[in-house]
Amino acid sequence: MQIKQMLVPEYKYELLCPNPMTPTEITFHNTYNDAPAINERNNVANNSQGTSFHVAVDDKEAIQLIPFNRNAWHAGDGANGRGNRHSIGVEICYSKSGGPRYEQAVRNAIIVIRQLMDQFNIPIERVKTHQERNGKYCPHRMLAEGRVGWFKQQLVSGDYVPPTPIPQPEPQLPSGQYDSSWFTKESGTFTLNTTINLRTAPFSNAPLIATLSKGQQVSYDGYGIELDGHVWIRQPRANGIYGYMATGESANGKRVDYWGSFK
After folding, report:
1. Predicted pLDDT of residue 180
2. Where is the SH3b domain (predicted)?
3. What span, in angstroms and rounded, lies between the C-alpha atoms of 157 and 8?
4. Does CATH number 1.20.120.1200 belong to domain 184-262?
5. Domain extents for the chain?
6. What CATH number matches the domain at 3-157, 3.40.50.150, 3.40.80.10, 3.40.50.720, 3.40.30.10?
């Protein structure tokens, strides 16, 4: 697969890729959004924080933005960590929602990473997740779906074998009454930092009540973790009815991120 070169301007090197590097390892990530590779490239080129990586892969193309002979700041393991100083960072796009575009991006990433392994003589033992570098829950979707081992096996075999689907139990809609098996009582106010849907039950396919915008606030009386892969709050409404809103993703019984603030 062709890796399209769209390198950041050289005046950005001091911020984004200041050190010479001979790549001996690879680190792969999920972008945690639904943007294409070109957006990922442009976000890095325009940021002033120093975060960077070498290649973004989506369902149609792979774009290189940092030269492979320079380091990038993507692994979170410090100024002299092996991830930041010796590994090529590869971001796999469209991971937030998953679906066909993400699956194709994964297939393309397998091709791209194998090419890089061959080009730089990098063994599979030195191809690692972001989580293996510094503990961050990334690549989030691959970890949540239990597919890291499968992904690495594709890199070894060179043959794409679709992963075995994980059986999804039929959701049991809560009655609205207190049930400690899924619901923890807590009162507070949640302020959104992005657009989120309010639904009739704590599942992403439940009927929609309303779509709330960034800055709006929701009063809640409790929350549930690991419902449909999210942390949900419950909003008391009129006539004993409740609304439910996802406030971030969860995995293995723990919150992964926040889509707003609590007080």
Report:
1. 43
2. 185-254
3. 33
4. no
5. 3-157, 184-262
6. 3.40.80.10
